[in-house]
Amino acid sequence: AIEFEGRRYYLSRKMVGDEERPVRYELAPWPDFAGIRPPVTILYDEDYVALRDGAFKKIRPVTGHRTNWRFVYPLLGFFPAGFKEHVLEPNGINPLRVSLLSSLLAYVVFVAELACLFFFHFGIFQRVTGELIWLDYLAVVLLPFDSAVRIYQIFTSVRYPDGFFEWLPKLLWRS
Question: In this structure, are strands 42-43 and 7-16 parallel, antiparallel, or unpaired?
Fold first, then answer.
């Protein structure tokens, strides 16, 4: 429920907005029958609007147009969490989305490596470089762990998921 000027409302409709506010919401009065209490209530006042607008400006691209990062979008999730917070998010790139894409990309590379090693008896890195079979075995062992940890962070709503194996030193220092 949304509380505004002492009255309670609920979200009745979500609409496409304009460039300034891409999403518009329509509110309807909260029904008072049977004493139903909302599980969550948002107090909509000047403080809430200031916080919301500040958060909206933080994640909106500075220039207001599509970013050129889209060409390397799946690879951006491999960067450390600090880079995602200070560089990607201010440029309008969702850190959770790029982390999910990079985790899925790492998992796809793992499956491709496993298939090549099992069926064709060579790895992708070995085929490309000629001698780096150890890198193929390393990828088969490490990529699923990294993907699993970072996807777990995404599903547990970590705001800035770790980059490629950035979680490992944290885990080692904690033990």
Answer: unpaired
CA triplet 144, 150, 155: central angle to 5 degrees? Answer: 120
At 121-159, the pLDDT tens digits run: 888 888 888 887 888 888 899 999 999 999 999 998 888
Rounded to 5 degrees, φ, ψ at 157 are 60, 40
Distance CA(99)–CA(88), nearest Å, equals: 11
Domain ranges for the chain, please list them: 2-59, 70-174
Query: CB–CB of 153/162 below 8 Å?
Result: yes
How do beta strands 7-16 and 23-29 pair?
antiparallel
Each residue's pLDDT tens digit, 10-36: 778 888 877 777 778 888 888 776 567
Q: By the 8 A CB rule, do 140 and 126 touch?
A: no
